[in-house]
Amino acid sequence: MSSGLLFAAVGCLLLVLGVGGVLLLDHLVRRILAFNLMGSGIFLVLVGLAQRSGRIDPVPQAMVLTGIVVSVAATALALALARRRYADSGSTTLQDKARREDRHD
Amino acid sequence: MIEHLSTPLVWLILLPLVWATLAFCLGPGRGALLGLSGLGLQLLCAILLAVEVAPKQTVTHLVGGWQEPLGILLVADGLSVTMLLLTQAVSLPVALYAYSYLKQGQHWFWPLTGFLLAGINGLYLSGDLFNLYVTLELIGLAAVGLVVTGGAAGQVTAAMRYLLASLVGSGGFLLGVALLYGCFGTVSIRLLTSLIGSQAPLAVWLAAAVMVAGLLLKTALFPFHFWLPPAHGGAPAPISALLSALVVKASFYVLLRLWLGPFAGFVSPLAWLPALLGSLAILWGGCQAIRAERLKMMVAYSTVAQLGYLVLIFPLFGTGSHAMQIGLLQATAHGLAKAGMFLAAGTLVKASGSELIDGIATMAGRLPVTLFAFGLSGVSLMGLPPSGGFLAKYMLIDAALAVGHIWIAVIVVTGGLLASIYVFRVLRLAFLGPGDERQVALQPVSAVMEWTAFMLAVSAIVLGLAAMPLFRLLEGVAG
Fold this sequence. Notes:
The complex is a heterodimer of chains A (105) and B (479). By secondary structure, chain A is mainly α. Chain A is built from 4 helices and no strands.
């Protein structure tokens, strides 16, 4: 297995972990971290698959750089919303209070 | 330098970016005049571009003169010009309405709307998949920012849900881009279309699956619609109008481009799948709209239903029918009618001070223009003649029966009946509802708010009478 394919395989693993985290976790900060894991996984797939021929291809590197900028912006917006949610309702999840109490019963 | 700026293609992206940045520098709540004049110029650019595209079918432009793959190729054809015209034609009246609706207060409506429109226009002009990803993300981030413009706690929760759904959706899209680049070493839609034949390798199948799933999540097609009603129904009215009329159409456009472009060779046997989801969306959205208690939630669920019609055209591609024309006509008619309906609903909510549908009892006599706008939009959503919605649905039934897809015709008719129930429920209350006219004092609403909604609703009707230019524009588009 070439190093490129190894990168891509690890990227897939991170991606699956990340998507699972975004969909299944409750705490907003953990979901935002999971989104970042997902993004990193996709970037690894993008760079890894493209360098199978042995030489470095600059185009996917440039794409990943753009992707990182986008995901930093998205993370900042998500964190701002999570802080606002916490300030408004004291909650760190998206569930309503009533539903959380149901769960504790 | 000058020849790179002399085409309207570039200005459609540059103008909103410029006025959004200037409006941001002016501070919260300001920049309305900048925005309105910028939107006027954008509408002019879109018309100029349509005039340029109509005889030639395709206009391309390399940004800054750089060749691919380093440079970005902008492409405009009949499909993208139609969507660009719709975008500018809806956003100008909505912005006028917003100027009146949001006058006071600390909000960032103008810069966020500018960035949103730069993203949407950029998306329609993109010729490569990676540029589509970047514009999808720009649209998503600006739209989430707009949802929280009102600042209420419910809006923050809705925006967070929307953001997470949107990020997962565009993540799926980017994974597909990565797989396709890994296989073919290009992201150009034109090149990929010629490289991918009918015998697609497994990686391309996987790419198609994650991209389509991501785009369906962003288009809020049933069962991925969970984020849409709270976000669209909870945002301030002009923002709901932008989101429902324009933003969900952008990801649908990408889906259409992929379906008819790179994936055309091998996805056609699966066309029943989006159509099935669309049918469920029409039924589910219609039933939820009938059950809704809040007026704007009803309009938002109506969007869930109307998005279903857009994907019903997929089984009709390649059958010799005008599937593309039908889809674009439905997208345009829904865009105009839904913007008009959301604006009218916003005026009604603001005037009565109540978000509930019951709150508009006996409003007909007091806000006749707004009620008329609501009714006319409803006529197009139900599909009554002579509206644009009627023409789209009639042609859809006609094309479906011609190839023996009777179930599509049944779904379209049922959807129209459901729509008539929720529209007439509101109109009945407004005209005949219980209550005394003198009991509740109305908040004053400006004439601008009433007439912009009316204009949009009337244009949805007029579209049904004057759809030929639209069809001509789409003649040269593949599919």
